Nonribosomal peptide synthetase MxaA
Amino acid sequence: MLLPLCLATACTGTTPSHNNVTLLAPRPFGYVIGDTIRHRLIIDTHNGVQLQRNSLPKLGPINYWLDLTDLTVNAQPRNGGFHYEIDLLYQVFYAPLEVKMLSIPSFNLPLAQGSNTATQTVPAWHFTVSPLRELAVRKDNGGDYMRPDTPAPFLDNTVLLQGLLLSTLTVLASAAYLAYLYGYVPGFPKRSLFKQTGKKLVKLTDAQIGEALSLFHQALNTLNGTPVFQAGLTEFYRQHPPYRLAEEPLATFFQMSNQHFFADGIANPIGALHALRQLCNLCLAIERGQR
């Protein structure tokens, strides 16, 4: 609601030049005890006219049923004057027995231009306040007048349930696949052989290359069920086709093993343990079906 106000109902000295004052107010009906009402005053002054803030309404009770709970003033220079926005927040504490008309009291806005002063009257604002319940209780058909609200209708949650079911199935399938990869499913081969070997290789140093080679030999023998020798790699690949992906590094492994265990005085190349760890990681990926 816009309510333009006329300027200067009372003045002292020469009246400051014309200013624009507008009251912005909400609906004037539908309030109950405890509700708040916000008003905004917009003032545009000219020729240096300023608002005297010290004379604005004070926070606190205005009367026994109305409080001013908040007041803020924003000012900006504009066109030789000022643009003011005054926000007032009132709270109603009146509990009527029937719909009743009330008024927020009027007050004066003090304005000054040098030594000249004037006041702008903000008129009273009328509104209605309603009771929370009727005083006389109706007893039509022997029932109570105060009844609960109609229950809200249920929302269709079919899509949500379908999404939840799909998400649950996805989680279960992922868990089953991970259990299969890690060898936790009964009846399926264990898939943690090279994982355990890899953990042991990480703890070894280059000086323990002999122990590292023996650990990897044990892993291959356990996988094959019988000892695996370099001459038997063809049969090993026939029984375990996925490991053909590691054919070249496995050949290098057996060369390092033969050199270490059977060639006296010939040291393994630098980085042999690192290469063996990489081979173990490759075999682990093959073991889990990731290659």
